[in-house]
């Protein structure tokens, strides 16, 4: 399981990577916004995408839309980890096909719960 | 009343003559003529300044963005900077708290390990009685599960300390917004200075389109805004109401 973690703040990428390692996901790669994330995704081999929303360059919501629009990537589960908490934003993310939405600041338990739920749904399909 | 240079010189000459001939009344009259010329220049300057100020003020009103910046963005920035203080303070206290919790666990493990190590050494040197060995076995039996428990706790505390560092991302987003605002204020002030020195007709700026999903970073007054989710539970509720 290879996970791409996208956030413009290196501290947050580090935190998420460490938490994922605790959950048993050791294979992670990083990108600092949508523009750098897309080529990594397109190169193949990414099984799971964790992304922030508010980033310079390409924002997380646009990255999500780009992933869903690309037939090679459209089925990758996407977990959004963000400080954006407006009703419209969450609705738009849901409509764009996000698989989970974690609000910053978050706890290790929340991250685990959302990731578990995403995999449960995938396994059930 | 305006008088020209020749009239000024004439008045000055007449003033000297009047003074030399002790003609007080004539001297006073010439002095009045001279002062009037100065006053009139002063009035002219004041008039010019007033007009410039008036023009600047009307331009100031036209540039609604600057008014908006002063009315809304500036107080908002104070709140944002206060948010940075509170968030960094919370994170520092949280981290220090977990350090306080973790240090005794580590030193507890170390002390017991040292004690057992000494006894174990005596056992290996065959310096230990059977009773003492039974007591050592008991100690080791208690110690090993304690190592597991303490290590788990230390791991959990370290994870919490790591999570607390998330403040850097949250405050970083807010500080970026403040930097953008400072830049905008600076540009507007430069514009204002330009306008004050030279009147210019500018087309009124079009109102910015409101983008409902524009990224805003952490919400500073989430509790006051019904459109903002306060925590993960509210987000989960909203998503499940959407059939998620």
Structure description:
The complex is a heterodimer of chains A (125) and B (244). Chain A has 125 residues and is of the alpha/beta class. Chain A has helices at residues 10-22, 34-42, 60-69, 87-96, 108-124, and strands at 2-6, 27-31, 48-51, 78-82, 100-103. Helix content of chain A is 47%, strand content 18%. In chain A, helix 4 (87-96) links the parallel strand 4 and strand 5 (100-103). In chain A, helix 2 runs parallel beside helix 3 (60-69). Chain A is globular, with a radius of gyration of 13 Å. Chain B is 79% helix and 0% strand. Chain B has helices at 5-20, 24-62, 64-124, 130-164, 167-197, 232-241. Chain B is elongated and about 135 Å long. The A-B interface holds A 7, 9, 11-12, 14-15, 18-19, 22, 52-54, 59, 61, 83-92, 94, 101-108, 110 and B 159-160, 162-163, 165-170, 172-173, 212-213, 215-219, 222, 227-232, 234-235, 238-239, 242, 244.
Distance between the termini of chain A: 18 Å
Helix percentage of chain B: over 70%
- Shape, per Cα inertia axes of chain B: elongated
**Major sheet details of chain A:** 5 strands, parallel
**On the 0-100 scale, what is the average pLDDT of chain A?**
95
* Assembly form of the protein: heterodimer
Number of strands of chain A: 5
Structural class of chain B: mainly alpha
How do the strands of the widest beta sheet of chain A line up side by side?
Answer: 2-1-3-4-5
- Characterize the biggest β-sheet of chain B: none
Structural class by sheet pairing and helices of chain A: alpha/beta
C-alpha-based Rg of chain A, rounded: 13 Å
The span between the termini of chain B is: 84 Å
Spans where pLDDT lies below 50 across 5 or more residues of chain B: none
Number of alpha- plus pi-helical segments of chain B: 6
């Amino acid at each position: 399981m290879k996970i791409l973690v996208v956030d413009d703040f290196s501290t947050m990428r580090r935190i998420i990577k460490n938490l994922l390692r605790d959950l048993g996901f050791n294979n992670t790669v990083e990108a600092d916004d949508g523009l750098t994330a897309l080529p990594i995704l397109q190169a193949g081999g990414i099984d799971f995408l964790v992304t922030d929303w508010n980033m310079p360059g390409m924002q997380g919501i646009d990255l999500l839309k780009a992933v869903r629009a690309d037939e090679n990537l459209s089925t990758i589960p996407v977990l959004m980890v963000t400080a954006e908490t407006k009703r419209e934003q969450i609705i738009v993310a849901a409509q764009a096909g996000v698989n989970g939405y974690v609000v910053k600041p978050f706890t290790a338990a929340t991250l685990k719960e959302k990731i578990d739920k995403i995999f449960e749904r995938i396994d059930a399909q | 009343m305006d008088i020209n240079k020749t009239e000024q010189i004439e008045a000055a000459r007449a003033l000297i003559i009047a003074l030399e001939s002790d003609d007080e009344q004539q001297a006073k009259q010439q002095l009045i003529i001279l002062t009037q010329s100065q006053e009139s220049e002063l009035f002219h300057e004041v008039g010019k300044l007033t007009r410039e100020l008036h023009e600047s003020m009307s331009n100031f009103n036209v540039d609604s963005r600057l008014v908006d910046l002063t009315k809304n963005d500036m107080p908002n920035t104070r709140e944002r900077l206060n948010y940075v203080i509170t968030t960094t303070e919370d994170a520092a206290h949280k981290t220090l708290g977990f350090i306080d919790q973790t240090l005794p666990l580590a030193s507890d493990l170390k002390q017991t390990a040292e004690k057992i190590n000494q006894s174990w050494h005596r056992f290996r040197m065959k310096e230990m009685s059977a009773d003492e060995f039974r007591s050592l076995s008991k100690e080791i039996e208690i110690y090993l599960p304690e190592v597991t428990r303490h290590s788990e706790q230390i791991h959990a505390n370290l994870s919490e300390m790591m999570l607390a560092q998330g403040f850097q991302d949250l405050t970083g987003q807010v500080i970026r917004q403040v930097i953008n605002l400072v830049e905008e204020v600076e540009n507007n002030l430069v514009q204002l200075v330009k306008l004050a020195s030279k009147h210019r007709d500018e087309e009124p700026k079009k109102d910015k389109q409101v983008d409902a999903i524009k990224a805003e970073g952490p919400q500073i007054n989430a509790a006051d805004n019904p459109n903002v989710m306060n925590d993960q539970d509210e987000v989960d509720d909203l998503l499940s109401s959407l059939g998620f």
